Each structure stands twice: as C-alpha cells, then as structure tokens.
Amino acid sequence: MENDPLTVDQICLYEKPRRKAELGRDVLNLDDFSKKFHFQRRPSNSCKHRLKEYYKNTLSHFSLLEWITSLVPILGWLPKYNVKADLVNDIVAGFTVAIMHIPQGMAYGLLAGVDPVVGIYTAFFPVLLYSILGTMAHVSMGTFAVISIMVFAPVSQFSTDPESSPVPLQASLPSPVLNISLSGFLADSAEDYQDDSPTIVAAQEFYTPIQVATAVTFCVGIIQVSAGFCRMGFLSVLLTDTLISAFTVGAGIHVLTSQIKHILGVRVAGKSGPGSIVRIYIEIVTNILSANYITILLSLCTLAFCLTMDRIIGPKLKQKCRFPFPTQLLMIIITTTISKLINLREDYGVRTIDDIGQIPVGVPEPVLPPPELFPKVFLSALAPAVVSYSIGLGLGKMFAAKHGYEVSSNQELLAQGFSNLFGSFFNCLPMAGSLSRSVVQEASGCRSMFTSLVSALCLLVVMLALGPLFQPLPVCVLAAIILASLVNILKKVADVSKYWEQSRIEGCVWILTFLSIVLLSVDIGLVVGIMSSVLATLYKAAAPQIRVLGRTKENVWLDVSTYSTEDTGVRVIQVSGPLYFMVYESVRLRILDELGVHPNKLPDPSQAAKYKYNTLILDISSVSYLDTKGGSLISWLEAKLPGLNLVLVATPLQKSRLGDGIEAEIFPTYIDAVLTVTAANNLQTQGNGDVTTTTINTTSTTTTSTTEAEETDKDVRYSGQYDNTNNPIV
Predict the structure, then answer these.
(1) Are 647 and 677 within 8 A, CB to CB?
(2) pLDDT tens-digit series, residues 46-69
(3) Angle subtended at Cα 146 by Cα 144 and Cα 148, rounded to the nearest 5 degrees
(4) Is 524 exposed, middle or buried (0-12, 13-18, 19+ CB in 10 A)?
(5) Segment 119-152, tens digit of pLDDT
(6) Residue 431: which of 220, 241, 131 has the closest Cα?
(7) pTM of whole model > 0.70?
(8) Is 43 a member of any domain?
(9) 90 in a domain, yes or no?
(10) Contacts of 53 (CB under 8 A, 6+ apart)
(11) In-domain check, residue 688
C-alpha cells in the first residue's frame, strides 16, 4: 500500500547510512592553503574608526522619548495596557501575592532583628517605586530570607539591645545617639570610685536595630544606583550557579541557627562575626533546661502543618485550583486567635509580638537614617546589594525568556537602587526578589507590573487597619514558618556532588564557599566565594588543554586517554587555549613526557636520539593567545630534540608570529599533516623494499600501492563512524 507508515519493527531494523568524512579538497600545506583560498590579514580598527561605528550604530538613532521611557518604563507599558485582557489577572495575582507577603514579611523582619512590621513595610514602599521603574513583571519584590540574615549581621553588631545594656536606662540621656552616664553606674566595685561627684566617663553611641537596618538599606541603594549609572550590570556574572548554590545553603544554615532559640523558647544573646554559629549553639545547649515546652509544642505543630500542606495536600489542591492555598496565613490566623483566647503570653510564658513591640497603625513618617552610620555599615551593605540584584535579575531573565520580553540589567540596578533609597526613609529592609512568591505570582496570572501595584495597595490596608490584630501572634510560629520554607534550600546541599562530578574545581569552590559562610560569616563567605570562583575561572582560562591523539585500528585519530590506539610512530598533540610565558614550562614538560624524554637528560645532538614516536605533529591552531615565549617553544623543540620529525599545524597569523627561523613544515589542519606524514612514511617503506610499486600524487596525496602502503594510507578519518570502503580522505 502506498504511503504506508513504517512499523515499529521496520524502524528498529532501519540502519542509518554510513557517511565518510572527507576534506573536500587536495591536501595542502599552510602556504599553499593561504594562496589557494586568498588569505587576507584584517586591518586593526583604529580609535577613530570605532568612534564612527559607535556614532553610526548608537548616537545617530538616539531618541529623547525612548531614553526617558527606558529610565521610567511605566511610561512605555501603561499607555499600551490592555484593561480587558490583563486587569482581572493582575488584580488576582496581586491579591494572592499580598497574602503571602504578610506572613513572610513578618517572619523575615524578625529574622533581620527588627520589628516584624518592618517586613510588611518592605513589601509596600520600595515596591511602589519599583513598579514604576522596574522591568521584571513576574518577579515578586519584597523581603527575602538570605537578605534578612545578611542585614542581621550589622544590626547585631552596631545596635544596642536595652535588655543587655550594662548602663541603666534611667542614667542615659534622651538622645538616641549619645549616652553620657555616671561613673557610679559603670563601676564594678568600690575601688572604681574616685569620689561621689558625677563625672562624664565616656560618650558612647547607641542605635536602635531599625536605625542600623535602614542605614544598610540606604547604602545598598547608593551602591546599586552608582553601579547602574556606571553601566555595571554585567558584574552579575561573577555570581555563578556554583557560588549561588553554596551561598544559599550556607545562608540557610545561618537562618536555621537564628531561629532555633525561638523554636525552643530559649534566651540567647545575638552574636555575629566568625564562629558565631558555634557560639550560638554552645549557648543554646547551656540554656536548654530553660526551654518552654509549650513553645516547643506549638513550634512542632506549626512546622508539621506547614510541611504537610506544602508537600502532600498542596500539590493535590494545585491540580484543581491555580491559586495556592494560603497555608502560612491560615496558621498565623489560627495561632493568633488561640494565643488571644488562652493568654499564651501571660499564663504560659510564650513569647509573642507584644514582647518585641507594638505594631503601629498607619504609615510611618519619612526619616533619614543616621548619616554617621553610613561609613560603618557600607562594607556590610556590599553583599546584600550584589546578592539581591543578582538573584532578582536571574529570576527576571528566567521569566522574561519564558514570556518573551526583555530585561535590562542596568535599568534593574537603577530601579532596585532607587527603590531601596526610597524605602530607607520608611523603615524598610533591602528588597529582593523571592523565588517562592514569584512562582506563585506567575501561576496566578500576572500579566504586567500592575500586579506589584495591586499587591502594595492590599498591604496598605493591612498597615492602616489590621496591624494590631497580630500582636498576640507567638514568635515561635513565625520561626516555624521560616524553617518550613528552608527545607528546599537546605536540600540543595546535595548539589555539591553534582558540581564535583562536573568538575572538581567547581566542587572545591562550592565546599570552600559553604564552609566560609558557615564557619566565618555570610559577608566574608561571599567574598571568599567570589574570589575562589574568579581564581578558578582564571586557572581554567589560563591553563591550556592538551590532547594527545593516536591512530586506532580503523585509522581514526582519537584521544589516547579515552580510546584504544596503536603505536604507529606518529603522535598528534593538540594545544587549546593560551600558550604564553606562564604555561610555557608545563606544555614543554608535557611534550617531553609524551616523547619519553627526561627534562634533565636531553639527547646529545652528536648521537642518534631515541624517542617513543619518531614523528610529532604539534597542533597549535586552537591556541587563543600566543606570545613570544610561547612561540619560542617550537624553535626549542627543533634545537633540543635532534632527529625528531616535527610537523606543525598553525594558522597564518600564528605563523607570522613564529618568525622565519622555523624549519618544520606547517599545515592548516592536522588531517593535512597526518596524510602527508603517512604518505612520506609509505614512500620510505617502499624505498626499503617492502613494497614493489607505489605512485604518490603531491597535489592530491593519493597513494596507490599493492601491499601494506595501501592498507596504511586508506580510510584516514577525523570524525564520524568507521566506513568499510577503502577510499582515502582527499
């Protein structure tokens, strides 16, 4: 029957046609190759020529309206907004994400060492400006666990906890900055007193946690805006996947450690700096007998409920409804109600939001963070500035590729920077993109940046009216919610095996970054990770790759380290990457080792030398950079290895750098060299009487013989499957 489709059996029996790899031309040396194909040296571009090209391609097409629209993207997308098609989806997505912002904002605010309501502020004020300046529609900006733990380091270092202050509050002046105390309050014993008259002992600066946090936010904004104006968006490539994976897991360990005290109900003083994790666990073990059993029970119930809903019930509900079940918000409402009804704080000693502070109603007044804090926290702000931008940009490019729009890296620096500057005046943490909220925002039907506006307006209602309702919320519930969200992050510790299998260098970068973050600090660990990643990249880029090719039984030239090859007296050594003074010695030693020559026992020129292989084809055509020292390797091999048949494979530009003193014949490809060397060896064999008749065509390198010469010269291939035909590559 005509046009019948193939059956499964016929498909299984179908054999792909064998193909023979051919040069498609005569075998040529480099000079003949350059003449035949008209090699021309490309002239170098002068500075004047480059300026003309820049003016032609950029400045000549400059439009003031497009420039303003690029700086304020809302002017571009808002006039084109399709109300009928997109408005309902954006409203639903914005409301859904706002529900997630409430518990996450409060939890991550607590994680940063400030009042929980600060997390809600962060999801409102910076997001308002970002919806005007940003370009990532599907990324949910707001609080993020990793950024909160990074902010906690300077907060714990520069802020003062009134409960732990050695100076009584009654002895301090009303100023929040200067505290002048009496010597009697600071003395440890009677010997410390000189007289009974009040004297000024010292002027010490004290700051509240929110002052330090907003100072960090301000510096983060300054760093990002400055980088945006300098067009430094490309620096995000420094944070590789390996580095981000190790950094996320290491920061997750810090987050986990910071919440253990809330889970157990144990009082632990805030610690920062190298070894802080170890010191925190030592203090927890020391005070474990003071743990609150009601707090532990409530934490375990919250953790079990969140994990059950997220892991078991949530995926089943997702099949029936595109909107996620508000597990965290539901748990907050339930535990807040229970805490209010049975007085968990007064009757059972469970720590609640009331112990931290009052949740204010309304919008906070704009206040400039203390300027004297800026130089102190500037270095601490570098890490969250880079990490928040890189994580958000990574999410934005992922969604942009999926939905077909562009994300400008430099514009994102400006948008996030100005948003953080604006938020620093309203008690906000540095904002960042959240993967969990972004996935929900996309799944809920987000179509544009209008989703962020809707989310911010919903949170405004919470700040204006619903804030005090969360006062009885147990702190351990927020800690359990944080731990439940950490499960996926901590599971990424298994990535180390994946990176180790891909490259041991990448695996070492992962381990070094992770251990630096856990044992030292988040900031130091990030610096160590970036430096180790850059050094690993430089090492891989600076060290050339060397492959040694040998001939198989089927006359295919393959890597001797991975394939079985024969000893034919000919070896091909391919050098890929830079060949310059720093790697000159390592390449030289590798070549000598392959030839069986000891570097300290070079052959005597007056005697016949013996090598593993009589012919060495050195292929440097893939060398990306060749300096004078690297080029001298060829002349050194010719001078120090007498009797070696050295053949070179190079490009015309490389030949010009090698100079005129090179005696080795140069070919454009190693296939040309192999065919020529093989033909020459066959000719020499015939001259010794092993073969009776042979004809060699110098232009096509076609060898005709009646015995072994024909068998040697046939079927020389550099790729593809072995073919049973006896046609040589020509």
Answers:
(1) yes
(2) 666 666 666 666 655 666 777 677
(3) 70
(4) middle
(5) 889 999 999 999 999 888 888 899 887 888 888 8
(6) 220
(7) no
(8) no
(9) yes
(10) 45
(11) yes
SS3 per residue for 41-107: CCCCCCHHHHHHHHHHHCHHHCCHHHHHHHHCCHHHHCCCCCHHHHHHHHHHHHHHHHHHHHHHHHH
Q: Are 119 and 79 in contact (CB under 8 A)?
A: no
Alpha-carbon distance of 338 to 353, in angstroms, equals 14
Could you give the CA distance from residue 384 to residue 525 in angstroms, rounded to a whole number? 13
Between the alpha carbon of residue 251 and those of residues 118, 144, 257, the distances in Å are: 21, 11, 10
End-to-end CA distance of the chain: 43
CB atoms within 10 A of CB 160: 17
- Long-range contacts formed by 320-327: CB under 8 A, 24+ apart: 322/443, 322/444, 322/445, 323/92, 323/96, 323/444, 324/96, 324/100, 324/440, 324/443, 324/444, 326/99, 326/100
Q: Which two three-digit tokens encode residue 359?
A: 């949740």
Of the candidates 547, 511, 471, the one whose C-alpha atom is nearest the C-alpha of residue 115 is 471
472 and 356 belong to one structural domain: yes
Q: Residue 284's domain spans which residues?
A: 83-164+209-532
The answer to whether residues 309 and 409 belong to one domain is yes
Q: Which residues does residue 559 pair with via DSSP β-bridges, in sequence order?
A: 549
| Co-location of 323 and 346 in the same domain | yes
pLDDT averaged over the chain? 77
Token code pair at residue 378: 């500037």
User: Which of 608, 669, 660, 663 has the alpha carbon at shortest distance from 639?
Assistant: 663
Please report which helix (H) or strand (E) contains residue 646, including its range: strand 645-649
Identify whether the C-beta of residue 26 lies closer than 8 Å to the C-beta of residue 699. yes
Is the same domain home to 496 and 599?
A: no
Q: Measure the CA–CA gap between 284 and 234, rounded to whole angstroms.
A: 43
